[in-house]
Write a structure and sequence with these properties.
This protein has 267 residues and is an alpha/beta fold. It has helices at residues 3-16, 34-40, 45-66, 85-108, 124-137, 153-169, 180-185, 232-243, and strands spanning 26-30, 70-77, 111-116, 143-151, 197-200, 219-222. It contains eight helices and six strands; from the N terminus they run αβααβαβαβααββα. The protein binds farnesyl diphosphate.
């Protein structure tokens, strides 16, 4: 059996262990470890980012095949501007190239692509490619790919707070009308269900300013694998782990299964 066939068989075996009725609708991913992967191999960090693009393609395909509906990936954080100019420029160029090369296939796959974050500081050429990609795919409905670029969770929350404060001071809303639903309706992810699962690669155990509001009740899966080595197999492992969790949203699942005294205050 060829190496490719062995991998395919391993993935098929894992898929069999997945309950298709309980596949998370929305998965968020912090794709971490590109730089370390490249450095470990004696390559410039850019090699890791290049390799990471292929992994992202594999995970989009795998999650869509499994029945997920939304994938949100952290491609560039508000903090990433502090990296050396050469790396920032490389990443900006990579985003442009990848989008130019892949957008037709994304469209053929009926994937809608949406960019989340403040795109203002990016070069006009990238902004143009982004807006063309969004308008080309805007009516696609099989799968939604959210790419977070120059995104920061705190910044997003502050922006919503400002908007609501302005609406309140102009009399459009009353302060007493501010609630979670109204707050949600002003978020960049407005209309999108919160992620049930957050995957972070490279073993880091932080949220790093990603989707702070939206991840309130998400299950978190930390993979020790660096993003360029992540693949469908590792993704399926994350889904199986997620399905073994007992999602209680701060409540208790069943009084028959668990006595009141044994349960935690919240989970
Ligand atoms: C984190 O690794 C990765 C990034 C900051 C960039 C991720 C971008 C891609 C995979 C390309 C995606 C392309 C599109 C069009 C969405 P790191 O550099 O923080 O790694 P380190 O923690 O080892 O330094």
């Amino acid at each position: 059996m060829s190496f490719g066939k062995v991998i395919e068989q391993l993935n098929t075996d894992l898929v069999k262990r997945i309950d298709k009725q309980k596949v998370p609708e929305h998965v968020a991913i912090i794709m971490d470890g590109n730089g370390r992967w490249a450095t470990k191999k004696g390559f410039p960090r850019s090699f890791g980012h290049n390799k990471g693009v292929g992994v992202l393609k594999e995970i989009i395909k795998a999650s869509k095949k499994l029945g997920c509906k939304v994938l949100t990936v952290y491609a560039f954080s508000t903090e990433n501007w502090t990296r050396p100019t050469q790396e920032v420029d490389f990443l900006i160029n990579l985003f442009s190239e990848v989008l130019k090369n892949e957008i037709d296939e994304i469209h053929q796959e009926s994937i809608k692509i949406k960019f989340i974050g403040d795109l203002t500081p990016f070069p006009e050429t990238l902004k143009k490619i982004i807006s063309n990609s969004e308008s080309l795919t805007k009516t696609n409905n099989k799968f939604l790919l959210n790419v977070c670029m120059n995104y920061g969770g705190r910044q997003e929350i502050v922006k919503v707070a400002k908007k609501l404060a302005l609406k309140s001071s102009s009399g459009e809303i009353k302060p007493s009308e501010v609630n979670e639903e109204l707050f949600n309706s002003e978020l960049l992810t407005q209309g999108i269900k919160d992620p049930e699962l957050l995957i972070r690669t490279s073993g880091e155990k932080r949220i790093s300013n990603f989707l702070l509001w939206q991840l309130a009740y998400s299950e978190i899966y930390i993979s020790e694998v660096l993003w360029p080595d992540f693949n469908e197999f590792e993704f399926l492992k994350a889904i199986i782990d997620y399905q073994s969790r007992n999602r209680r949203f701060g409540g208790i699942e069943s009084l028959q299964d668990e006595s009141y005294e044994d349960s935690e205050c919240s989970s």
